[in-house]
Amino acid sequence: MAAPKRGRRPAGGQGRPGRTLVFILIAMAALTGGMFWSGETTPRLGIDLAGGTTITLKAKAEPGKESAINETNMNTAVGIIERRVNGLGVSEAEVQTQGRENIIVNIPKGTDSEQARKQVGTTAQLFFRPVLAVAPGGPAAPQPSPSASADGKEDGQDKANPSTSPSGSTSAKPSTGATTQGRAVTDGLKAPSPSASASADSDKPSDGASQSPKTDPSTPPANADIEKRFAALNCEDPKARSAAGDADRPEDTVVACGKNGAGQWEKYVLGPAEVDGKDVDDAKGQLDQQRGMWIVTMDFTKSGSKKFEKITGKLSTQQPPMNQFAIALDGEVVSAPEVKQTLSANAEISGNFDQDSAQDLGNILSYGALPLSFEEQSVTTVSAALGGEQLRAGLIAGAIGLALVIIYLVAYYRGLALIAILSLMASAILTYTLMSLLGPAIGFALNLPAVCGAIVAIGITADSFIVYFERVRDEIREGRTLRPAVQRAWPRARRTILVSDFVSFLAAAVLFLVTVGKVQGFAFTLGLTTLLDVVVVFFFTKPLMTLAARSKFFGNGHPWSGLDPKRLGVQPPLRRTRRTPAPIDPKEA
User: Fold this and answer.
1) Which among 54, 82, 483, 507 has most CB atoms closer than 10 A?
2) What's the start-to-end Cα distance of the chain, in Å?
């Protein structure tokens, strides 16, 4: 005897709603646990809510090149500054042009905001310059008489460690601090290209002789002005450091300041720029897995490779410190590695880097080639108190909107309002945890328009519940009991919900793509909450409604359940009575 066939599950049927509920509850618990594990228990706030700094930069062109201030170069500068700031992990940094020659940079307060402001301030071009001399960062002491003291030392100077002068009259002993973090000596370099070759033997200094910059024919001789500026330069004075590179051109011999690995300032005499930032194709700090150390890798453009091969070929034959090239940004030396071999298309800077210093140097090298130089016109700090007031106002508006929705649900849907409120709570938990986790993950920051997007999402989510509840009620009005009504109403409600949410998500996506700045925060939040609405309705509201239909309170149509057939206008079926046929009149027969 053949086994009877199982009946097909009705459309929209859900046989195991409990499993679906358990699944989404586990997902909510995992997201909440991940939020606490990451330490980000609150969403990051944007500049309009947490406060921050607004910097106005004014473009400056070199004399005779005023036409360089144009829309193309300004847009290029905006892109480079934006990548430079965001490359540090600063959330919601905004960079945009204002007028013809101004750039506005908004940096919210946060862990990396101060570092980002420093990076924004370094808006001049990046140059690779050969090092001619290095000395401690303080001003030079007055030279004493050359009489020797009894211990065999000249007054004020140790013969074993003579000071360096830009004229090259004395050989410089390289500072060990200059080879550490932030200014790393090149302990290991990538293999040079086959075409790379060392410079002529005449470039090599004689053994035991002090090395002078004048011995390099490509290096112009130091002059009295450079010597005077070098001796007077005090790198411990911020104003002196800032003014050190003023009015210097790429072809000039210049003085500059830089910190060594011990955090002490040193001053340099640097030769004319051999390579500039535009010749760097890419640079990044990364961990060398084999050696277990952080390094900075550089790739050069085709023209930059030739320039770099030429300068490294010369520097590799020199004695310290003249075998170093300085990476100078805004007249400040950010790194001064030694060159030990001729290099071409790529190079590697290694030393006592940590992750932050390696990535910071890679960021400077990669994004340092600005087409213009900029000066800081103004710096305005937005008070966190004002941001706090705006956040408080936004939260109050959200609470009022949520309260009005709940009041409407309770008044109109009664017991069904409990399912809607639980669904809203599930949506709120998912939204909050995801916003908190997206902060460190992608730099998402909650600004005031984003708060508005979250408030609008309350209505979108509640609308999905209303669509489903009304479909269920329509099925009950047609005379069905609750359990089949819940299952038959779902396919129709599901279709409407998906179409509605698709339109909302499409609008959010278009708005996100065609707008900039804070409006993108509104679009992103709207799109995120729209997706979460689909998740909540499918995996929480629907199975919860299926379980509720099995209870006596909802299944029997309690007056406070919101599904009372009488309140919905369902008429009881009329009893049919058999009509007795009228007797036939014999006359008519």
Assistant:
1) 82
2) 58
